[in-house]
Model the fold of this input.
Amino acid sequence: MLTVLVDYDSGNLHSAQKAFERMAAEVGGGAVIVTSRPEDVARADRVVLPGDGAFPACRHALGAVDGMIDALTEAVQTRAVPFMGICVGMQMLATVGREYADTAGLDWIGGEVVPIAPDDPSLKVPHMGWNDLVVEHPHPVLDGVTSGDHAYFVHSYQFRLANPADRLAHVAYGGDVTAIVAKGNVIGTQFHPEKSQATGLRMIANFLRWRP
Amino acid sequence: TMLKTRVIPCLDVADGRVVKGVNFVDLRDAGDPVEAARAYDAAGADELCFLDIHATHENRGTMFDLVTRTAEQCFMPLTVGGGVRTPEDVRALLLAGADKVSFNSAAVADPDVVARAADRFGSQCIVVAIDAKTVSPGKWEIFTHGGRKPTGIDAVAFARTVAAKGAGEILLTSMDRDGTRAGFNLPLTRAIVDAVGVPVIASGGVGTLDHLVEGVTEGGASAVLAASIFHFGEFTIGQAKEHMAAAGIPMRLA
Done:
């Protein structure tokens, strides 16, 4: 069993790596590596795509790793290995991102990434801190996670889904804000599971055991 | 369901050691920031803040090592500040495991450094720490060098400037109140909160749990930062959060 965290020079992978390593050791989840080599993605049993920063910069950086998009597509779409996107790594699953300029996403889950626009002017952006999840559908990765559990968010844009059934959970912040998306063997979290203490670690453990 | 107000313990670090005492039971080495961070993680702190108070080039490596070791053990958000001057400094701290990095005097000297860092790494990880002092009623000025050096810059105008440049959060310290235990400077906090659209962390002067409440209800802060009331074991994080929740503030309780 090999879990690959894709490194495309977007932010800090250290915490994510340590969190996945710790939970892999607990659940017998095998090896965890951080890599920017498409050939590692080609042999991965699970793939994690993190991402911090602006959508266009992340999308460009991911595309700049020679062969990576093809390797990800083959692993996730053809071989159907379990995939988790985190933060901008989740946003890039969308059809299009509308941060600064319109940027095409991977289009694995239909929808667009748009600014958070709270209907209450006193609410600050970025949406930063701990918010409690409202779980809309059960999912193996949410085993033991229930509505009311908190996750740590820090973002100014959100994933608005073309098909509401692809949304697993949301939080309230002057309107609904998408927290978790899922479709087939793909799941994505707007928040950082590796920074969300017990709730996040549980989701990571569930992901490492998930057999879609 | 709603966003919760954050309680953030701040550790002052010099040469890899905690400067103000951390007085918890079960700590083998109270001076080790990583041990203190673990204790605060277990206690349910919402974020952690490391402030490198000397921040010379020579002791940089020590701070990176601390951040790395903390991020390996504490799966919670970590902000690091002190001596951050360039986007390269931000990158190095993010790679070590910080989630947010705080500019202070470098942003005063050149607010464009905030824009350069935010463009590269995203606003979500760029904090600007503002140290302000009351110069006349309703008027606050930025001070640098630990509050010793006046700059002539209006604090509210500066907050607006750095928010426009891409700061994702403001860490506001009242130099009048810091260390006094007399409570936050509430008019200053309110003025900054009303001036910017990004979250503001109130800091400086906490002596009682009611001060934490006031920072939110009167100051309008999104988060409250404190050091000594937690480090000396006077109050636990849990007591602080329960006290704030009892006052009607949305909190993440254990």
Q: What stands out?
A: Chain A is about 25% helix and 30% strand. The mean pLDDT of chain A is 96. The helical segments of chain A are 14-27, 38-42, 55-64, 68-78, 88-91, 197-209.
